[in-house]
Amino acid sequence: MRYWWVNQNQTHRQEIGGGYLWSPKRNASGARNPYYEFMREIAPGDLVFSFVETRIIAIGTVTTYCYESPKPTEFGATGLNWEAIGWRVHVSFTPLSNRIRPREHMDLLRRLIPPRYSPLQTSGAGIQSVYLTELSEPFANTLIGLIGPEASLIAGRVREVDPRAAIQTLPTELELWERHIEAGIESDSLIPETQREALITARRGQGLFKQRVSKIESHCRITRVSNTAHLRASHCKPWRDSNNEERLNGENGLLLTPTIDHLFDRGFIGFEDTGELIISPVADQHSLNRMGVATDHTINVGPFSNGQKHFLEFHRNSVLLRAVR
User: Fold this and answer.
1) Who is most buried in 144, 180, 195, 325, counting CB within 10 A?
2) Residue span of the structural domain in which 280 resides
């Protein structure tokens, strides 16, 4: 279990009430932001302290891994400069009756403030630029002690959570987002009918897209299965993020068995340009081994084309659940 601190001044009503965290992927300038990148590390069974204005007002239990999601419509005018697509994770929040003000307890907390990515100034004031950041176990336990029995009860329940039991199907928001894009394609009279059909079947890794990928790939890179009846064409740059040309570009695909496709699409695995398999730190290694992904040694799946490398870079930066720290 890991511990997190989230500053929710602008969006606490929507996020706590809706049971989630949401952040953009990048700053308005397009630069990486470590406090958004942390969303890629969060995992089921983690504990989140919600800080609003000057107080900790709720504690949340993380129930899913992070995934791509459009900015929530309920944000309204909040965050007008934020990207339209960001990171979302489900969190079950419990509002607190004892809403402590950290600045009143800096005699205990000051020595626990980390040198990097701290949520607080040494005075106890919050840092405006921080969204999500990790807390050390001593820091978290001190907060739990200050809040009292209600926090201890929540933390106790979290410690009983088995992350392997939090098997997440395709999130509803993600499915609705893709269906919205699909509906737009179906109704676009400027796209020829045959191309519309090809674009829609490409979402499921079939049709023309699979034919084009099959000219480049002959088998699943992990399981070595070569019978195309058992393979689907998986987008490196997800269908939902791609333009129409990219959705049908064979170099934007790999032939994968359904379980490997799930791991790749959800960001539990990825690939370096050299062919080396990347395993996300949030992936459950026991499950990976059972699904045919060995975790006890380095795996190299072979070279990629220059076009594939281009799309795999997007996957590493925007899908893979791994933060550069």
Assistant:
1) 144
2) 172-318
